[in-house]
Structure formats: structure tokens, C-alpha cells
Design goal:
heterodimer; A: mainly alpha; MetI-like fold; about 80% helix; B: about 300 residues; mainly alpha; 14 helices
Chain lengths: ~270, ~300
């Protein structure tokens, strides 16, 4: 049993403190009664009340959620297809260009992607609104999905699929009953990643949104640009709480499914 | 037929919504700004056939690029972005390496939890994490209150709206991108190599420099690119934490587009930024490919 040296323990403690302190402070100050964010004026949930009475915020939250659900679902579909193309289809015309277009958006600065998409929408005369944000989000998040799914596809044993084909499955059946269940965890994390990226995006949404379709990040950005805003602290706390619950649940579920798979494999090989 | 559809659907999507937009940016960067809708000229008039295409091509020139070299604002912004991106990448490495090292040295049953703790901030909103520093770094913020209380300083420091705040913001938000690849490299490290080095007379420190660091090189390179490339084009961090004197090219592009409404110059700024980033992006992909080959 290894023990941590004091040096490693200190660096881990300091590192995690650095990562978490700002968020903890934000959460604490969201319950501050006063308007001044840096002076504690007693516990209060008043800013949460203000937030839920703020129509503009609620409307923006609704737009953001709709955009995120639609774009991440389509991005997961297209991204999974792209991953299969990357890993499974052999050579085809323009393959290098294709993989370049998958990897480039991952590191492309948002300001460039946003500007380019906006100029496209204007060139083809598409009115800016929720639709254009959805199209933009699908485009960059499908690349993230395809990278996540492709790494799973690469590591999986192809003979399983071949066995299914030998046993008389059609290729589509084999995909549905063998490949899909195996890559499902990657597809789900791809969807979650696309969903989070969409919820979080400020820059691309600012370029591609119209006046009637303000998203939550755009709203937050304009509210905090000049200073600290207690309503935003309350909103941030809600978002942090949702993400924390989600990540912890997901990691518990995946831990359980890994344990179950290990047990099943052991049983299968034991016989 | 099915194979064709499988390739064609994502391919066409990316062609239309990723490649074509860049060609449009390139085209507009060669146009002139006007007070019209759209605010640039010439526009392609296909109804006039070849003559229209020829007129359009004749109207394109490199004027906007000359403008970028003439106005000191632009090249200063590129240089200052480069400086901020390089320095903050080094700082992130300095902060991130010990964390990754500690994770790799932690007992096995701690590691999944530590992993989750490093990944969790990545799932929380980037915007909110940047914003959370505003309340800490301001004049009457918590950091100043704390330092005044300790008696280290007697006057509150001005940190918010300076480049220092931008460095803190970049290191903070991109830290997981640095820690995770380094951790992945360190986790695979065979500890008997370190024992061998020590048996052969290395001190622990020189074993670290001679064995651990070279063997985690791939992780260091991957992490550094993952911080450097987005930091170059960063907009949110300088906009929220930087001051009016913080020059970064992402912010210049944004202002050129939204405030000055000069689309051709904004497009030229984007094209030059992209050209500057192509070298690190290609190097990054080559490094990733080497990693994959080493594993496969």
C-alpha cells in the first residue's frame, strides 16, 4: 500500500483548493443578503427569488435549453457517423480533408468559427435566430462527439462483430446488437459533452444569434461585464449544483457498469 | 450505397458549415468595407455570368492586410496575445505538473476520485468560472481583504483589469487540459525505472529530471498545445478580467466586428490569426498521432 509523500499531498491539496475555492466562494456569496458582493450582510435567499422573477432570464434559459437539446442530439448522430467513417471505412476520395475537418474545429478559436458561420448565414440569407445557433453548435460539437466515439471504436475487438456476421446477422443487425451496445457509453458521454458545450458557449452564440434569441451565456456576459452581480451568483450556484449532481451520478453509474462487465467477463471466461 | 450515405452526410455537413464559411472569410478579407448591407464590396453577381465573376475578382485586393501591418494596434495585439499565451502555458505547466504527479503517485483507490475532481470544473460553465475571479481579485475583493488582514500589504492591490488577472484566469480555466494528459503519461510510467536509476546512484531529484520528465514528454507537449492554442484566440478572459490596456487579438477581432462593424478588416484579422495557429495545430496533431501509434 503506497502512501503519499508530504510533497505530493501538499501539491494535490493546493491544486484542488485552487480549482475549487473560487466556485465555493461564489456559492457562499450567492446567499449574501446585501447588494455588495464582497461585504457579508447576513444569510438570505433573496437573489434566488429575484432570479426566478426575472422574465428575461427565464426566457433566455428556455432558449438555451432548447438549443442545447436539439443541437447535441443531432451532433451525436452526425458525430457517431463521422467516427464510424474515420475508424471503419477504408480509403475514399478526400479522406484527409474529412479528418482535417473533424480535428480542426476542436482547436479553432471561437471568434474565428463564430465569424465564419455568421458570414455564411448572411451570404445564404438565413435569418439569425435559434435555428442558426443550433446549426453552429451542431457543427462544432459533432467533432467532439466523433473524437470521443472514435477512440472507443478503435479500442474495441472487431472479432465480436465478425462473429455476429458469421452467425448470420446482417451488417445493420450486427451494428445494432453488437457494436452499438459496446460504444453506447462513448455515445452517451459524447452527447453530454455536446450538451455542455452548447449550454456554455458565449462567443459563437453571440455571432450567430438574432435579437429575439438571446441565450443564457449572452445574458450572463452582458450582466457581469461591468461588475459583480448577485443574481448571476445565484444562477451560477444553481448551474454548479446541477453539474455536480450530474457528474457524480454519471461516475457512480459507470463505476457500477464497469464492475458488472468485469464480473460478466469473468463468468463467461470461467466456464 | 449505405457506405456512400454514411460518408456523405457528415462530409457534406462539414463542407457546407465548416469549410465554405472559411472561404467566405477569406473572400471578404480581400474586399473593401462600405456603408451598405452587407457592409463590404464587391459582391458576386452571378446573374451577369462571366462578366460578373471577372468584375468581382478584379475588386479583390490585399488592402486590408496592408492595413493590418500599418496600424500598430494589430501587430501589437498579435505579439501581446503570443506573449500572454506562451507565459500562461508555462505557468499552467508549472501549476499542473505537481498536481498530475501527485495524482499518479496517489494510492490506486484514490485515483478515480481525484480524476473526477479535476474533470468536474471542466463540466461547469467556463463563463462562470472566469466570472468567479471578479469577486476575488477586485480592489475590495476577498484576496485584498485577506492580504490586508494578514498585514502583508497596506494598500489594496490593483489586480482586476490588468494582465495579471488575465494570466490567473487562463491558468485557472485551462488547468484540467494540462493536468489530464500529463497524468495519463505519468500513470503509465514504470516505477521500476526510477528504482533502477536510484540503484545506479541517482539522487531522487536527478532521477526525476532524467527519467520522469522525459517519459512524460508526450503529456507535457499535448497539455501545452491544449492550453496555448485556445489561449491565443481567447476572448472571454481578457474581456471579463483584463483591462482596457489588455491587448489580445480575439478581443480586437470582436470589437472590429461588433463595434466598428468593419467586416473586411475583422476577416483579415481572423485569417492572419489562423495562419499563426496552423503551425501549432499541425504540430499538435502530429504529436497526437505519434501517441496513438505508440499505443496501437
Amino acid at each position: 500500500m503506497r502512501r503519499l509523500s508530504w510533497f505530493n499531498l501538499t501539491s494535490l491539496t493546493l491544486g484542488l483548493a485552487f480549482l475549487y475555492l473560487p466556485m465555493v466562494i461564489l456559492v457562499i456569496y450567492s446567499f449574501n443578503g446585501g447588494k455588495l458582493v464582497t461585504v457579508w450582510a447576513g444569510f438570505s435567499t433573496k437573489w434566488y427569488g429575484e432570479l426566478f422573477r426575472d422574465e428575461a432570464f427565464l426566457k433566455a434559459a428556455w432558449v438555451t435549453l432548447k438549443v442545447a437539446v436539439i443541437s447535441s442530439t443531432v451532433a451525436t448522430l452526425l458525430g457517431t457517423m463521422a467516427a464510424i467513417v474515420l475508424v471503419r471505412t477504408g480509403r475514399f476520395l478526400g479522406r484527409t480533408l474529412f479528418s482535417g475537418m473533424i480535428y480542426a474545429p476542436l482547436v479553432m478559436p471561437d471568434v474565428i468559427t463564430g465569424l465564419a458561420l455568421l458570414l455564411l448565414f448572411i451570404a445564404i440569407g438565413l435569418d439569425r435566430g435559434a435555428t442558426t445557433i443550433v446549426l453552429a453548435h451542431i457543427t462544432f460539437s459533432m467533432c467532439f462527439v466523433s473524437v470521443v466515439v472514435a477512440s472507443r471504436l478503435q479500442s474495441f475487438d472487431r472479432s465480436l462483430e465478425e462473429a455476429a456476421l458469421d452467425l448470420g446477422c446482417t451488417p445493420l443487425d450486427a451494428f445494432r446488437s453488437v457494436t452499438l451496445p459496446i460504444i453506447a457509453p462513448a455515445v452517451i458521454s459524447g452527447w453530454l459533452l455536446a450538451f455542455t458545450l452548447s449550454l456554455d458557449d458565449l462567443v459563437i452564440a453571440s455571432f450567430t444569434s438574432g435579437p429575439s434569441s438571446t441565450t443564457l451565456p449572452i445574458k450572463i456576459f452582458s450582466a457581469v461585464r461591468l461588475g459583480v452581480n448577485p443574481e448571476i451568483n445565484a444562477l451560477s450556484t444553481i448551474m454548479i449544483a446541477i453539474v455536480t449532481t450530474g457528474v457524480i451520478t454519471a461516475s457512480l453509474l459507470s463505476k457500477r457498469s464497469i464492475a458488472r462487465r468485469a464480473r460478466e467477463e469473468q463468468e463467461a471466461f470461467g466456464q | 450505397m449505405r457506405r456512400f450515405a454514411l460518408i456523405a452526410v457528415p462530409y457534406l455537413w462539414l463542407l457546407v458549415l465548416f469549410l465554405v464559411p472559411f472561404l467566405i472569410v477569406l473572400k471578404i478579407s480581400l474586399s473593401d468595407a462600405t456603408l451598405a448591407i452587407p457592409p463590404y464590396t464587391p459582391t458576386l453577381d452571378l446573374s451577369r455570368g462571366w462578366q460578373g465573376v471577372r468584375d468581382w475578382a478584379a475588386g479583390l485586393d490585399l488592402e486590408n492586410y496592408w492595413f493590418l501591418t500599418e496600424d500598430a494596434l494589430y501587430w501589437k495585439a498579435y505579439l501581446s496575445s503570443l506573449k500572454i499565451a506562451v507565459l500562461s502555458t508555462l505557468l499552467t505547466l508549472l501549476v499542473g505538473y505537481p498536481i498530475a504527479y501527485g495524482m499518479a503517485r496517489a494510492p490506486d483507490h484514490w485515483r478515480p476520485t481525484l480524476m473526477m475532481l479535476v474533470i468536474l470544473p471542466f463540466w461547469t460553465s467556463f463563463l462562470i468560472r472566469v466570472y468567479s475571479w471578479k469577486a476575488i481579485l477586485s480592489q475590495e475583493g476577498l484576496l485584498n481583504q485577506f492580504l490586508l488582514w494578514l498585514g502583508v500589504i497596506h494598500e489594496p492591490l490593483t489586480i482586476l483589469n490588468t494582465n495579471t488577472a488575465v494570466y490567473i484566469g487562463i491558468v485557472y480555466t485551462y488547468l484540467p487540459f494540462m493536468v489530464l494528459p500529463i497524468y495519463a503519461a505519468l500513470e503509465k510510467l514504470d516505477e521500476s525505472l526510477l528504482e533502477a536509476a536510484e540503484d545506479l546512484g541517482c539522487s531522487r531529484l536527478s532521477a526525476f529530471w532524467l527519467v520522469t520528465v522525459p517519459l512524460s514528454r508526450q503529456g507535457i507537449i499535448a497539455g501545452s498545445f491544449l492550453v496555448f492554442i485556445p489561449a491565443m484566440g481567447e476572448f472571454v478572459i481578457p474581456a471579463l478580467l483584463g483591462g482596457s490596456r489588455t491587448l489580445m487579438i480575439g478581443k480586437v477581432l470582436w470589437e472590429e466586428f461588433f463595434s466598428n462593424r468593419d467586416w473586411p478588416v475583422a476577416s483579415a484579422v481572423a485569417v492572419v490569426l489562423l495562419l499563426l495557429l496552423i503551425v501549432p495545430i499541425v504540430l499538435f496533431q502530429r504529436n497526437e498521432q505519434k501517441n496513438r501509434e505508440a499505443e496501437g
